């Protein structure tokens, strides 16, 4: 049994009898979205209101990923997400706030605080305004550049996974199960720039794309490596 309780939330959890694996696991499974099934396992999300806060409680059983260290039985995908969140925190990159994490045999629980209280998804902003503001493009470029500086690849930074803070300039990316550490920063750049532009370009004109790339590279004139990255990204997009 492995458990982590965020010290900041310990008193509130204790008050609501939610301080261990069993208490979260036994919450009614009123699924927030359809279950994700894989082989003999499953993974799902429910919501739980605690005081004035809403928590997302993610549960899974036999829903594993295989790695070099665990090539046969694998490990829970939520373990990887929890580790990725901790890695972002260590590098001072805004991310999800973990309330509780626990593993019991082939079962796993990851509880995070709802982002919607102080943040809004880029997907909703685009749907409402039908375009990107230069401020938001700059914030997204800065966040991705910071992640890539640490060789961190999100893998799928599309509008529905990007949340903008309503109070400060923070950007928070969700869906961190597939986040990975790359050997070279340019590998992360190619993958993430391609993914972002692939899904966001229908709401961006050429000026928006040019502005975003200038802010990402922090340069009006690209060097050799930056040109290489851009060529690879454009090549992947043209194949669509």
How would you sum up this structure in a few lines?
One of its GO terms (molecular function) is kinase activity. The chain is an alpha+beta fold and 240 residues long. The chain is built from eight helices and 13 strands.
Text of the CATH class of the largest domain:
Mainly Alpha
Order of helices and strands: EHHEEEEEHEEEHHEEEEHHH
Form type: globular
Helical amount among residues, as a percent range? 25-40%
- Supply the helix-strand structural class: alpha+beta
Q: What's the rounded overall pLDDT mean?
A: 88
How many structural domains are formed by the residues?
A: 2
User: What is the radius of gyration?
Assistant: 19 Å
The major sheet is characterized as: 6 strands, antiparallel
**Count of DSSP E strands?**
13
Please, how many helices?
8
Q: Which second-level CATH architecture of the largest domain applies?
A: Orthogonal Bundle
How far do the termini sit from each other? 46 Å
Beta-strand residue percentage:
15-25%
Explain what this protein looks like in three dimensions.
It is a single chain. By secondary structure, this protein is of the alpha+beta class. It has two domains: 2-116, 2-Layer Sandwich (Phosphorylase Kinase, domain 1); 118-238, Transferase(Phosphotransferase), domain 1 (Orthogonal Bundle). Helix content is 38%, strand content 24%. The chain contains eight helices and 13 strands. It has helices spanning 10-15, 21-25, 77-90, 122-129, 134-149, 185-200, 206-217, 224-238; strands spanning 2-5, 36-38, 41-50, 53-61, 64-65, 75-76, 98-104, 107-113, 119-121, 152-153, 162-165, 171-173, 180-181. Strand 7 (98-104) and strand 8 form a beta hairpin. Helix 6 crosses helix 8 (224-238). The longest helix has 16 residues, at 134-149. It is globular, with a radius of gyration of 19 Å. The mean pLDDT is 88. Keywords: Kinase, Transferase. InterPro entries: Kinase-like_dom_sf, Put_LipoPS_kinase_InaA. It holds the Pfam family Kdo.
